[in-house]
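Morning!

This is the sequence you dropped in the shared folder:
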Amino acid sequence: MSRPRISLGCGNFGGIGSAPAFFGRGTGKDEAFELMDAAWSAGITWFDTADAYGGGRSESYIGAWRDLRKPDGLTITTKVFNSVTGDPADTGLHPDRVRKQAESSLDRLGVERIDLYLAHEPDPSTPLRDTIATFERLVDEGLIAAWGLSNYDGAGIEDALSYGRPELVQNSYSLLDRGDEERVIPLCAEHRIDYVPFGPLSGGWLAGRYRRGEPYPDGSRMTMRPGPYQRLIGDRVFDGLDRLGADAAARGVAMAALAFAWVLEGPAVAGAVCGPSRPEHLAPPLAALDISLTADEREHIGSYFT
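The structure's back. Tokens below.
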């Protein structure tokens, strides 16, 4: 299925991802509207969210924006697993819960059908075949158009292929996170599954937000939710960032644009999710669409962090 190559990540609308500690924070409604307006004006017609982002606020903001703007041709991806209320007992992919959460997402988004519905992460307490059977029933009933997987490894994807065919896999992938190259990306290519990663800029690291020996900017991922990125602190990464920055300068492009292009130019990569906090942050991913890299150039850029 042909889809846009860039999706607007709405994970910070009304919070910071699915973390209950940040529900009600993050990007406010007015700022979210400004971002959606800017993205839509720039030709980004695919929005990516999850039911638990911001405790449901992300979906609600998108629904309110849809109701006001009435955009023609908008594609929406949303996901299920985490708690919308912050209740640790209210998580998972049990069939009854998936159906309940899908219906709640439809209400918040104000749509009759979800374009892409993803399992946000594996649920060890629920057999995957039962979750997929529920997804397939939701497709048959017209409540979702297609389903997929997020944060699944190769074994999980192979398991899923025993019971159905996901349309999309969404995992973390960037110059600083290349684990999917070994098994996940080849699997997606073999089975013609769209691989559309999130985190192509690794929480701002590949945009040059963090510099050696300097304090982290206020409001950045490293000041609010640094855990996933602690592993990046060190000379290896800072040295690589210096080389990436020099390469981008020689090409006359932003470092973030070159890092985003490296992801888009990857074998079997169908697109990528960008997660801007301000409209001007849309410029690098949009510029990345015009950057072409040969296989040798891409391999050379990848060597900056090895």
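Headline: Strands lie at 6-9, 46-48, 75-80, 116-119, 147-150, 168-170, 194-195, 272-274.

More detail when I'm at my desk.
O.
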